[in-house]
Amino acid sequence: MSDVKEFQSRPTDTSRAESPLEWSLHEQKSLPHASNPGVILSEKPFMGQLILRGGAIVMDEAVREVMDMALPAKPLAVVSDDSGERSIQWLSPDEWLVIVPGGEEFELEQKLRQSLGQAHFSIVNVSGGQTLMSLKGSRAREVLMKSISYDVHPHAFPVGKGVSTTFAKATIIVRRTQEDGWELILRRSFADYCYRWLLDASREYGVSVTR
Amino acid sequence: MFYIYCPYCKEHREEEEFHPRGQAHLLRPEDPENTSDEEWGDYLFFRDNPRGIHHEMWVHSVGCRKFFNITRNTVTYEILETYPMGEQPTITAETERVRKEQGVQAADGGWQTVGARPENKALNEETSS
Ligand SMILES: [Zn+2]
């Protein structure tokens, strides 16, 4: 068991939590609602997000034991569980991003620490530092083509791939976990900027924002 | 713009995602206490500035955030190979010199390892003669 102090960072009392996009969405008195939207944006707030670092072999054993999932074996891969609610993404040869439904992350962190024991590793809860944005619709890919230099053609970017890249000069993670949509992971301090950029880039296709 | 192959992400990415971090393969003197001022000054401040093949350290700062090495021709800007930290280059000024003496076109030989192959091969051949 590691000697690291763990703490539950998610408020369990009645304190109000605000997602990184709370202010941006609140500022807009009414959310954009096109009649036939080519782009549909929605934030998936308050997901549990952990950064795992360590050797791939020990980490894979721990993740298999605790989550019943395997680490993605290839660079730039994202794997999801059967429900599609939990995912593990390759970020670098010794770093992975785990996303689980909000509230599960603290228990998961504790179990992983227990399983990893004295191995050389690090787990950081980054749930408060970034947020998930879902980008869907028939023109979603065109919005990405305007915003990132990475090739988002289905040949180059199949389902099950995720990359960290530049988005309108900011850094974001772009991933495709399902056939019909994209997930963007926005850093808290860039969330408002990226959201406004997305609205602007989507305007010509008709955009709806749902909460 | 360079189109750089990251040896960790195992694919080509835009230069915008990378930062150059100077000359590669610099070794800190093993015994700093008994190193002369001149040797220490060389280690700290003085860098090679070759005309031709150069080995540089780059970091994939927006992607995997790993450091790696690039062998680059400072005259033509060709990236001849990229390789992970801890490994040695397969293309050096010496191998290029031997290749030239044997009358092999550097433009053909240079691409034997991973690296950016420019779309316009004619342009490349022009600069290598
Ligand atoms: Zn990389």
UniProtKB/TrEMBL annotation, chain A:
Biased composition, class Basic and acidic residues, residue ranges: 1-16
Organism superkingdom: Bacteria
InterPro entries membership: SoxG (IPR007375), SoxG_het (IPR006280), TrmE/GcvT-like (IPR027266)
Organism: Kushneria avicenniae
Region (Disordered): 1-21
Protein name: Sarcosine oxidase subunit gamma
Taxonomic placement: Bacteria, Pseudomonadati, Pseudomonadota, Gammaproteobacteria, Oceanospirillales
Pfam families: SoxG
Annotated GO biological process: sarcosine catabolic process
GO molecular-function term, one example from the UniProt record: sarcosine oxidase activity
Automatic annotation (TrEMBL), chain B:
GO-annotated molecular function: sarcosine oxidase activity
GO biological process: tetrahydrofolate metabolic process
InterPro entries named in the record: SoxD (IPR006279), SoxD_sf (IPR038561)
Sequence segments annotated as region (Disordered): 102-129
Pfam families membership: SoxD
Protein name: Sarcosine oxidase subunit delta
Organism: Kushneria avicenniae
Basic and acidic residues composition-biased segments: 118-129
